[in-house]
């Protein structure tokens, strides 16, 4: 029973199809080919047909459920991948791959304590399994990251921003691919006034979870904290489009729009005042020049009169 690095499904665990009906075998093989071609829904349908064949033995049932789990995992449907992996483990409780299928789905669902237990159960079935060993090490590492994140959230609740940022940073050191941790880190940094770093953390979260509203909200918050309201508006708008039912997010977006309007008016007033000051300065300069010219003319006239009087005398 090889690990299917090529994206294909499992074979029957080394028993050379003993006990598997020709009909079930046909559907298993057809499903495996579709799985290799990344036609995941069609593969699931073929595996389901194999499971519907009457009298299929437990070993074959385990393989078909395992392959179904692989298909759902490949399309990112981790709830159904877990369901199928659990069914595989129930059918073949001593088969290592059934437990690693289940454990992989639990990891993706962030149910990490259960994932650790599932990988440990896999190693009980086969202590030499590299997949189970590597998976267990990763699950434990990510579980520690999850614990740091929980502590960070507790610090946030207590408004202890520095402690929160420290714990989120530790979580990211262990699991940098988790958008949630970047979002939480961004929030803590923003509260600390480290807004540029908060924007950068939100950007990282966006790369990892472009369809999640929270990274866009966090970037909007960080830009707003710098009074960059016009820059924040499109990020809030996109967050709202992804999560239109979030009343708190709607209020934050509206507040940002109001702040942007007030800021624009303030800037317009400041610009008008500056322009008026320049005009006043120019007007004052012109008046001063005019006075200087008048004084100069008066001086010349007075000098002329004085010269004329001297000539008459």
Question: What is this entry, summarized?
Answer:
By secondary structure, the protein is mainly α. It has helices spanning about 20-35, 40-50, 60-75, 80-90, 95-110, 110-125, 130-155, 160-175, 180-190, 195-210, 215-225, 230-240, 245-310.
What does this molecule look like?
The chain has 13 helices and no strands. By secondary structure, the chain is mainly α. α1 runs antiparallel to α2, α3 packs antiparallel against α4 and α5 packs antiparallel against α6. It is elongated and about 130 Å long. The N and C termini lie far apart (134 Å).
Order of helices and strands: HHHHHHHHHHHHH
Structural class: mainly alpha
Tell me the helix content.
over 70%
* Count of DSSP strands: 0
The main pleated sheet reads as: none
Return the average pLDDT rounded to an integer.
89
Task: Write out key terms for the chains shown.
313 residues, mainly alpha, elongated, disordered N terminus
Write the layout of secondary structure elements.
Blueprint: H1 22-36, H2 40-52, H3 58-74, H4 78-91, H5 96-108, H6 112-125, H7 130-157, H8 161-174, H9 179-191, H10 195-208, H11 213-225, H12 229-242, H13 247-312
Helix pairs in contact: 1-2, 1-3, 2-3, 3-4, 3-5, 4-5, 5-6, 5-7, 6-7, 7-8, 8-9, 9-10, 9-11, 10-11, 11-12, 12-13
